[in-house]
Specification:
5 strands, five-stranded parallel β-sheet, globular, about 40% helix, alpha/beta
Length: about 120
């Protein structure tokens, strides 16, 4: 069972509700980041996570979840990476993300059954 989860999400309400759901349902510690810069600033905690849920679109003219994905891999992240999106499959970011081999994709709102698969499959320390 996963012990620590990264949530990179620019929408504060969604980020907090998602974290509360994970904590209540799976009793995991969450590392919450609202931007790529916040993720990098919290790198010590972030890189200890076993699953990373990345919002693919973090706002206009801001680094994307795809850039976060590349940063995580470049810095030795070993856990599962899961993109979260509310955009359609023809969005350019979605098309790019689907080509990445170390990531999965979930559409918002994600079902708890789908999230549970990643939580249960995540690495433990």
């Amino acid at each position: 069972m996963v012990e620590r989860v990264l949530i990179l999400e620019d929408d504060e309400s969604l980020r907090e509700v998602f974290a509360d759901c994970l904590d209540y349902t799976f009793k995991v510690k969450t590392v919450l980041c609202d931007s790529f810069q916040s993720m990098v600033a919290n790198s010590a905690e972030v890189l200890q996570c076993h699953v990373a849920f990345l919002d693919i679109n973090l706002g206009p003219n801001r680094p994307t979840g795809i850039e976060a994905y590349h940063w995580l891999l470049k810095n030795g992240f070993k856990g599962q990476i899961v993109f979260l999106t509310g955009h359609g499959k023809f969005d350019p970011l979605i098309r790019e993300a689907l080509k990445l081999n170390r990531a999965a994709m979930l559409t918002k709102p994600a079902r708890m059954e789908d999230i549970e698969k990643f939580i249960k499959a995540g690495k433990t320390s």
